[in-house]
Specification:
- With 211 residues, the chain is of the alpha/beta class.
- The chain has one domain (3-206): Response regulator (Rossmann fold, 3-Layer(aba) Sandwich).
- The protein is built from nine helices and six strands; from the N terminus they run βαβαβαβαβαβαααα.
- Helix 4 crosses helix 9 (179-206) and helix 6 crosses helix 7 (153-163).
- The radius of gyration is 17 Å and the shape is globular.
Length: 211
């Protein structure tokens, strides 16, 4: 199994370090990179990646617009957002447009590799600090007609353990459930949070709420 990966990052040094990481990982193949998403459709067509590592803050055309355009035309391509900021608005906008993963740039090499493998295999991925943002977001009071789908006690447990820096495997062992079940819960969080972000934006526009 070889995973083809494309990188978006306006920091050349970081791009080079990610390229080196991919080239040193047997199961992964670097297929291209760019400093922004201006030509994202052409990039995807020519390089045919399985997974995209997407920086959020880039000049001209940023990562939020990038994931939106990728998912619009190439929904099968998996996208992992990377950022230096633990910004809930950016997290949920990325999820709303279909990103499968969200990690911080300071994430370990192991987390980066794990995230690529997880989303390639149909799962979702978020680092502990991002899981904490999701958990806090889910707890926020919202307008009555915009309530998020509530989580079951088990789903809440999984999210709590993830936010406390337990790996998927550790969570599975701790709760005596399968690794696949943990992954399914994480996928639900990304879809639920992303769906709610879309509803919240619609609500704000409908009611002329200023941010």
């Amino acid at each position: 199994m070889i995973i083809n990966v494309f990188i978006y990052d306006d920091n050349e040094a970081r791009r080079d370090s990610l390229i080196a990481l991919l080239e040193l990982t047997d199961s992964m193949h670097f297929v291209g990179s760019a400093a922004n998403c201006t030509f994202v459709e052409q990039d995807m067509l020519s390089s045919k990646p399985d997974v995209v590592l997407m920086d959020i803050e880039m000049p001209e055309t940023d990562g939020i617009e990038g994931v939106k355009r990728i998912k619009s035309k190439y929904p099968h391509i998996k996208v992992i957002m990377q950022t230096v900021y633990e910004d809930s608005d950016k997290i949920f906008n990325a999820l709303r447009y279909g990103a499968e993963g969200y990690i911080l740039k300071k994430a370990s090499v192991n987390h980066i590799i794990e995230s690529i493998k997880e989303v390639y295999n149909g799962g979702a991925f978020m680092t502990p600090s991002v899981a904490m943002q999701v958990m806090n977001f889910i707890k926020k009071p919202t307008p009555s007609d915009q309530k998020m789908e509530s989580l079951s006690p088990r789903e809440s447990e999984v999210l709590k353990y993830l936010s406390e820096e337990n790996s998927y495997k550790m969570i599975a062992d701790r709760l005596k459930i399968s690794y696949g079940t943990v992954n399914n819960h994480i996928k639900k969080y990304t879809k639920t949070a992303g769906s709610f972000a879309g509803k919240a934006v619609s609500y704000a526009l409908k009611n002329n709420i200023n941010h």
